[in-house]
Amino acid sequence: MIVVSSCLAGLKVRYNGTDCLDDTIEKLLTDNKVRTVCPELMGGFSTPREPAEIIGGDGYDVLDGKAVVQDCTGNNVTQMYMDGAYKTLEFIKSLNAEMVVLKENSPSCGSSFIYTGCFDGTKKDGVGVTTAILRRNGIKVISENELFQ
Question: What predicted TM-score, i.e. pTM, was given to this entire model?
């Protein structure tokens, strides 16, 4: 079983109400080989919502209380990201998923890159909150860019 970010499966759950349908994942969906998850929705967010970025580090730093997730209007939304990450962890454990493919650059799902926290479109090395909690629990997380490479 593979679990993928809902937006990569064509569901319009991103902060701006769009998706990021990935052709490879679309084929896996057709073959009924994947389940979808959106950590942000599991954390209580709705669609659309304000964009958010990690301020002061990455997902590991958020888990350790050294960084926060803030939306573009200045609201601290860290707890909702944490809630979504832990609910996603439980969902993935319940499926015994062998791999998780999450959307790169997201403050929740990024597995190699996230936005810098400046809300100017620049990126930095780092992981999102959900990726951090999954990896700390021994779950393999990759991005859509690494799928079948």
Answer: 0.96
Contact 128, 59 (CB under 8 A): yes
Task: For the chain, give percent helix, strand, coil, nearest 5.
Answer: 30, 20, 50
Distances (CA, A) of 84 to 26, 35, 96: 24, 16, 18
Structure tokens at 133: 């909690």
Contact by Cβ (8 Å): 77, 46 = no
pLDDT digits (tens, 9 = 90+) for 3-31: 999 999 999 999 999 999 988 888 888 88
- 3-state DSSP call for residue 46? coil
> Which helix (H) or strand (E) covers residue 94, if one does?
helix 78-95
Peptide bond into 107 cis (omega under 30): no
